Predict the structure.
Amino acid sequence: MEAFFTPFIGTGLALLGAAIAAGLAGIGSAKGVGIVGEAAAGVITEDPNKFGQTLLLQALPGTQGLYGLLIAFLVLQKIGFFGGQGILAISPEVGGYIFASCLPIAIVGLWSAIAQGRAAAAGVSIVAKRPEEVSKAMIYAAMVETYAVLALLISFLMLNGVNAA
Amino acid sequence: MSVVRMRHLKLLALTSRREEMLRDLSKLGILEIGESAGDEELIKLTGTFATDESEVRSRISEIKAALAAISRHAKIKSGLFAQRIGISADSLFDIKVISEAIGAANEINDTARDINALFTEEGRLINRRESLMPWEPLDVPLETESGDAHIALFGMCPADYSFEDIRASAEASAGAGVFLSSSDSEQHYIFILAHKENEDSLLDALREYLFSQTRFKDITGTAKDNIKKLDSEIKELREKRDNLIKELSGKAAYANRLMTGLDALEAGLSRETAMSKARATEKTFMLEGWFPKRDEEKLTRLLEKYGCAFEIRDPEEGENPPVLTYNTSLVAPFGAITEMYSSPSYSEIDPNPFLAVFFTVFFGIMLSDAVYGLILALIGVFALIRLKPTGTFRSFMKLAVICGISTVFWGVLFGGYFGDAVGHIYYMATGKVFDTELALWFNPLADPIKMLLFSLILGAIQIVTGMAINAYAMIRDGRFWDAVFDIGLWWILFAGIVIAILGSAQTGLALIYAGAGGIILTHGRHNKGVFKKLTGGLGSLYGVTSYLGDILSYSRLLALSLATAVIAQVINTMGALAGAIGFIIIFIIGHVFNISVNLIGTFVHSARLQYVEFFGKFFQGGGSPFKPLRLKTKYVDILKEDN
């Protein structure tokens, strides 16, 4: 009986990993993008011409969600989700590895996107008063993203080291 | 490839030829006019020119309003996509150009004001019509009033009460006739007639139903007649307004005149601003400013033509001349990226040539898709040819071309063509798996560790380059030993680390100890006392962690190139699941999305690596960019003259 369920536990863990990578990082980005959008809407009531610049800032905290999606996609690919042969049977150990490899981008993605959203929202007030300095506002927000990039990197390298077959 | 040498000019000229001379100066565009320094006595003896800046500014805003009005009502192209008209420089000084523009602007603004007034009037009439609508079914003239023997009331009761109740109550208490005009979700609109003697009991009864009386001021006749009258009035207004709008769109041809006038006024304004910095007496004035050394001959020729007395000298110690960088046309657009951070200071080495190389390479690696690069380059080429942009926008379009080509290069090396689209399309067309490796060098997705190492090595190269520039500047300024201690010792330490990893542990360690020991001994040399000198050195050695952090920061080259490739892969895979037509739709939307998102990320992160990791090693900035008095136009192009 146990031998029958074991592969499903592994697959389940891997899928759970993909779910939290896309899910948590996505929540973070949604929140971050939302924060910037609120600030940007205030600026637009004064000067609709700043739409382009504020939109650029609003896009910045969106990348964490993409990184989460990226890792989730690689997990799905690794466990044969898209292949013709159906999902591979995965041992609990390998499933656990895959789950662990999803954690960096899931956790850091969630928090960093919100922090980046705040930095970018502050950047929106730069755009309100000195639109020519929009690039500086973008760099401030990009400083936060560094850590999401690092987390993505570690998630990717961990996942890359796992042999699912 | 460097910061242009500047010279200082002080000139004395006749006020009578002031305007003429300023026009010629602005045509040349090589002199930045600064505040005139001078001793107290000079300031006491001289005054400043009176300027009419605010007058000019109000003219400018009038013309801008007129431009906005015709672009709102008449469909003319504006902004980025407009074709700019070309005019000669002299027509920017033509007083007629300005007066024509102001005349046109007044005409347009008057019409626009009339149109707005009509809009307001129409809104008022529509409101009035709305308020009469509930009374339309009632066949009673609205001016009907209470007389000696009867009372007549128009009014409303909340719709919560039933109308039948209200009528029954009013009839029972006062024998009144109650007529319902209409009801909506909130109110009953009713008309009541009763004998005068029953007024009190009627009002008491109505009060229970929260009756509120309505009076129609200045209205005679039934609501229906009034609504009909309003309808025809509104129609008339609209016709009038449409005629005016048509008239205004007929004036779209004035747009060029307005734009020329606007640029002429702006040019006049910049001359006024420059003049406000001069010291003036009744017949003469004095100006000071900076100009590039290479243009000295041109400038002196002009000054002699106007019979000026002048004095030219090199910058003195402690002075801060404005900064102009001179670069080849390939490097020059990167100046826009440096300017975002700060202009280099006058005595500094121009970072643009170095930044140009690193930025281009990093951008290409992070976007790393040959087709994306091609699209970006084509957009840049198209914009440069079709829109003939100027200023920063032009620089950015040139950057798009250069970085696009770099992206094609790296995309070919890493095998990204719309991500892995080739494989999917091949499979959909033939049913066979595509297993040729497209990458000319290697596929970062297949060998990420190799890509990570490559990224970090590029980072190390940039950081060492930054330190080398710093060392060069120190040696140039006669601080040879500073360069040896502050930079050379670090390099010994770095070389030791590299040698220890790659081969000989012994040589490596020896170099590491030598470098670290040297750093501890020398980096605290500006402190007082042996103890402070040593702790200063130790603190500096701890800075090795910041170099480590800097180099690790370049791992984003790998991460962002992965992001482009994998998101492209997600799009292609989703498309492949959706069949041929679905594939095309998902493919187009998805890749447009991926290009735009990754373009932002790539640009921001390429810039960040320059600003934080690279500039941190040597660049101070803080220079003020060279802003000569010149003909800067926003709407028209100045045709080159052949002289």
